[in-house]
């Protein structure tokens, strides 16, 4: 086992840029889904569920990329942080389907 896993001073600007671009693109797709939901009158439960669904798929994708990075000896905590951010955004956006109940 290497000491890289317990070292807290990771420095990998390229991985940070890739993770940030991944998060921004996932949030962008979720924002487009939110705009579609609001443009349709906020009355369709299926369209409302797309927003947290996009965040969930993005978070799972970030965890997969993080695991692959871990297996190759890369800086996986960056991807784990991206996944946690998307999971938190998913929890916040889970309230959208309740807007359709009247």
Summary tags:
102 residues, mainly alpha, 3 helices, Transmembrane protein
Question: Please, could you describe this protein's structure?
Answer:
The protein is mainly alpha-helical and 102 residues long. It has one domain. The protein is 70% helix and 0% strand. It contains three helices and no strands. Helix 1 packs antiparallel against helix 2.
Q: What's the helix and strand layout?
A:
Layout: H1 13-39, H2 45-71, H3 77-93
Helix pairs in contact: 1-2, 1-3, 2-3
Keywords: Membrane, Transmembrane, Transmembrane helix
Protein name: Transmembrane protein
InterPro entries: Gly-tRNA-synth_heterodimer
* Strand residue content: under 5%
Please count the beta strands (DSSP E, at least 2 residues each).
Answer: 0
- If you average the pLDDT, what whole number results? 89
Structural class: mainly alpha
**Poorly predicted ranges:** none
Number of domain modules: 1
Gyration radius over CA: 17 Å
User: Major sheet, described briefly?
Assistant: none
Level of helix content?
55-70%
Task: Tell me the number of helical segments per DSSP (H or I, 4 or more residues long).
Answer: 3
Order of helices and strands: HHH
- Globally, the shape reads elongated
End-to-end distance = 56 Å
């Amino acid at each position: 086992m290497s000491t890289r896993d317990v070292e807290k001073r990771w420095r990998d600007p390229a991985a940070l840029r890739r993770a940030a671009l991944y998060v921004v693109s996932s949030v962008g797709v979720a924002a487009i889904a939110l705009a579609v939901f609001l443009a349709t009158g906020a009355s369709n439960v299926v369209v409302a569920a797309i927003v947290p669904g996009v965040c969930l798929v993005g978070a799972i994708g970030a965890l997969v990329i993080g695991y692959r990075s871990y297996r190759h000896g890369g800086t996986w905590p960056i991807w784990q942080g991206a996944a946690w951010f998307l999971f938190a955004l998913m929890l916040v956006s889970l309230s959208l389907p309740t807007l359709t109940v009247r």
